[in-house]
Specification:
about 30% strand; single chain; Rossmann fold; three-stranded mixed β-sheet; 9 strands
């Protein structure tokens, strides 16, 4: 009887192994969904109260600035899934779409920073988002504060510090529903900013009187 010998398979070339690995990665990438923020047309037109304004990069909570689409579960935790991503950097997308939405609804010239025109803007707009989340109660909530500052060159401008708390009902939980609700919330926020509405304060710009450079204190 012949001695038993273990069956040996020929070793695969490294190039074949790498190719198989890349093929598997390509197949897995098809499972990744990328979702756009695209505010719908408001369907209303409001007076232009901003003129020209530079919108600073919108400040988002860490979970909302992440590439994965976040959502809240019944236990209150904020979770996400690597298979569901925003199609663009969330902060950049929020900023550019908000600027466009404000411009569309009011006729103002609102442009995200950096300001590209030779003529400087009359106002600076800053938005600080405190919550941007698909909540466990199937409501998308967008809340925070926005600030509109006048350049103050004429000495008689006004500044605004106002808050917003927008809630959009969602028909279901999921990244597609989250993207649609977030887009709707941005459209509503654009109308609020364009009309300078919401709880807050209006502050007049004041400048100290120019001092005489030669008006020096007496010497002792």
């Amino acid at each position: 009887m012949l001695p038993h010998r273990a069956l040996r398979l020929p070793a695969l070339p490294i190039a074949v192994l790498i190719g198989a690995s890349l093929l598997g990665a390509c197949s897995n990438s098809e499972k990744t969904g990328r979702f756009l923020i695209d505010p719908p047309v408001a369907g209303v037109q409001v007076p232009n109260r901003l003129g020209t304004a530079e919108l600073k990069d919108v400040s988002l909570p860490e979970y909302a600035a992440d590439q994965e689409v976040a959502f809240q579960t019944g236990d209150g935790a904020v979770r996400s899934n690597s298979d569901n991503l925003w199609a663009d950097d969330p902060a950049r997308s929020f900023t550019t779409t908000l600027a466009r939405a404000i411009s569309d609804v009011s006729g103002a010239t609102v442009i995200s920073e950096p300001w590209p025109l030779a003529q400087p803007p009359a106002r600076i707009l800053e938005v600080r988002v405190e919550r941007a989340l698909a909540q466990a109660d199937t409501t998308y909530r967008l809340s925070g504060r926005y600030f509109v500052s006048d350049d103050g060159l004429s000495g008689g401008g006004t500044n605004h510090a106002r808050s917003f708390d927008i809630r959009v009902p969602m028909t279901a939980q999921g990244p597609a529903a989250t993207a649609a609700a977030a887009s709707q919330a941005i459209s509503i926020l654009a109308q609020q900013i364009a009309t300078l509405s919401g709880p807050g304060a209006t502050i007049a710009t004041t400048r100290p009187a120019a001092s005489d450079p030669f008006d020096l204190p007496p010497l002792f």
